[in-house]
Design goal:
The complex is a heterodimer of chains A (about 110) and B (about 120). With about 110 residues, chain A is an all-beta fold. Chain A has no helices and twelve strands. In chain A, a hairpin with a 5-residue loop joins strand 5 and strand 6. The mean pLDDT of chain A is about 90. The chains are: A mainly beta (about 110), B mainly beta (about 120). Chains A and B meet through strand 6 of A and strand 5 of B.
């Protein structure tokens, strides 16, 4: 079956720290991979995506590279801000239904 | 454009009561989805619809019913609420079959508590 495993949280960081959230997946075929972000009190928003091996998705200073050999799609940001405090979800589409990871809560302190 | 809206934002029910959650989208999307979000479990698909008048079961459909009488609306019903249905419910829509080119857009969520 298709599944996504995310690094457990919560994660607490200071402003300007480096953030990494690990994500690995199991899927048949060649899924597209996504990171969604959920800010407090809001719905999910697409943060970035990658459609094939070695693709790098990027947005708002976040990056993630599709690594087929390690079945991973780790999210990184070099210098976080308080406004990056949110829940981050890794997801994949092997066919047409999104499968989500459990989510990682990130809190950035000033 | 309002995007995807959900009504109500919060609701408290007693066990055995019924209610309907309304999802509306103004983007003329064909596909609509209902998810539930529980701590440590991410989002799980309850039901989805690939067009007006159609519905299909997702990953966790038991205890829920849905209807898509109009293209812009997707209703989620709980006939007899149970405490296990306490959750945050999200509606989403996509222009066509979800893929890397057809993003799902999410509503703000409905927080439901069943006592």
């Amino acid at each position: 079956g298709n599944s996504v495993t995310q690094m457990e949280g919560p994660v607490t960081l200071s402003e300007e720290a480096f953030l990494t959230i690990n994500c690995t997946y199991t899927a048949t075929g060649y899924p597209s991979l996504f990171w969604y972000v959920q800010y407090p009190g809001e719905g999910l928003q697409l943060l970035l995506k990658a459609t094939k091996a070695d693709d790098k998705g990027s947005n708002k200073g976040f990056e993630a590279t599709y690594r087929k050999e390690t079945t991973s799609f780790h999210l990184e940001k070099g210098s976080v801000q308080v406004s990056d405090s949110a829940v981050y979800f890794c997801a994949l589409i092997p066919d047409y239904k999104l499968s989500f990871g459990a989510g990682t809560t990130v809190t950035v302190r000033a | 454009n309002a995007g995807v809206t959900q009504t109500p934002k919060f609701r408290v029910l007693k066990t055995g009561q019924s209610m309907t959650l309304l999802c509306a989208q103004d983007m003329n999307h064909e596909y609509m989805y209902w998810y539930r979000q529980d701590p440590g479990m991410g989002l799980r698909l309850i039901h989805y619809s690939v067009g007006e008048g159609t519905t299909a079961k997702g990953e966790v459909p038991d205890g829920y019913n849905v209807s898509r009488l109009k293209k812009q609306n997707f209703l989620l019903g709980l006939e007899s609420a149970a405490p296990s249905q306490t959750s945050v419910y999200f509606c989403a829509s996509s222009r066509a079959r979800s893929s890397s080119y057809n993003e799902q857009f999410f509503g703000p969520g409905t927080r439901l508590t069943v006592l």
